[in-house]
Request: fold
Amino acid sequence: MSNTWVEINHLMACYFRHLKEVFEAVGVEVSSVNKKQIDRTIHGIIGVNYKDCPATWRKLKQEVLSDEQKRRHFVARLRSAVRGTP
Reply:
């Protein structure tokens, strides 16, 4: 395992590695500066208490990412939140 992988993985919430396509669609690059805010935002959008990583990933996987319409809606909400627009 390379140090780069460890450094990048350390920056990610447990489910972020599964959301690469979502982050690309949103137009955001996760960094140590914005990771926590993005994580809090995602928790808020899907209605899971912050820092409950397994529940967040479970809900994203089962209820959001498995349905194209819900996925598009989630991407739009995350994009608006990241850009600071309602």
In short: The chain has five helices and no strands. Residues 3-83 form one domain.
